[in-house]
Amino acid sequence: MDKNIYVQAGSLDIGYKDETIVSDINLELRKGQALALIGTNGSGKSTLLRTIVSLLKPLNGALTVFGKTPGESPCRVAYLGQFHHGGFILPLRAIEVVRMGRFPMHGLLGRMHKEDDEIVWSVMRMMGIEKLANTPLRYLSGGQQQRTYLAQVLAHRADLLVLDEPTSGLDAGGRDLYLQAVRSELARGAAVVSATHDIQEEANMCHQVMLLARRVVAYGPPKTTLTPEALLETFGIVVTGDKRLRVIESVHGHDHGEELHDEH
Questions:
Q1: Please, what is the end-to-end C-alpha distance for the chain in angstroms?
Q2: Which of 80, 151, 205, 234 is 20 to 30 A from residue 177's alpha carbon, by CA?
Q3: Nearest CA to 80 among 159, 8, 163?
Q4: By three-state DSSP, how is residue 21 classified?
């Protein structure tokens, strides 16, 4: 077994008991690599992420995380979902939310150490929220809340980061901080898989891209995967200018577009 292979799928079918969302997924994510899942809402991105973190069971085929069945290495995986509720039920401050990222190492009632506090403050500075440490989560803006949840994931110091729409709600400054943080995580040897609509930013950072439209449209390095033909199958596109593409979401009721530089 190659210990540098963090996620591996072969002929994998994902979905729910009564519905297959995507069939025949084949992928390999190695230490220090990033994979971007790109597609419209309903394309299968979140379903694949939830399968990797064992919230959903594979319907068919093979899937391993660190060479084991998904869910068997919880301390090595950090997951950021799209929806968060606990901070609004409990009067949690931002720093308390971030500290939760250290719970997998110590347990819910485990004692935090100096090293844990240093990590917590480090990732809060990384995401630009250290001055908001004592602010209740419910009083933060949407973008500040997303930065807080990203800091929580970073505090985990996981070997595999699984991120669902990580830049949702972030302004340009927040997106820049996120990209810097991911590059730092990759540099220390973590692997990152993220679901996104943001083609340009993720493609410039990621080693691999998978285009999804309730099937695998394309998979591989960005320069060979993000072709006009593949993007047309995934979204529908129009060329708006020299070396720029505008992606128009024409599936699942979306009508907004995103731009990316075409470097092919």
A1: 36
A2: 234
A3: 163
A4: strand
Tokens of 42: 């309903």
Inter-residue contact 147 to 129 (CB < 8 Å)? yes
- Give the Cα separation of 221 and 77 in Å (integer): 24
- Give the β-pairing of 191-196 and 160-164: parallel
Cα(257)–Cα(145) distance, integer angstroms: 25
User: pLDDT by residue (tens digit) across 31-57?
Assistant: 999 999 999 889 999 999 999 999 999
φ, ψ for residue 30 (rounded to 5)? -105, 165
pTM here is 0.87
Cα-Cα-Cα-Cα dihedral sign, residues 106, 179, 226, 188? negative
Spans of the chain, pLDDT less than 50: 238-242, 244, 249-264
Residue with tokens 């110091």: 157
- In angstroms, what CA-CA distances link 30 with 25, 44, 67, 76, 159? 16, 22, 11, 14, 10
Q: Quick one: which of 161, 20, 36, 79 has its CA closest to 11?
A: 20
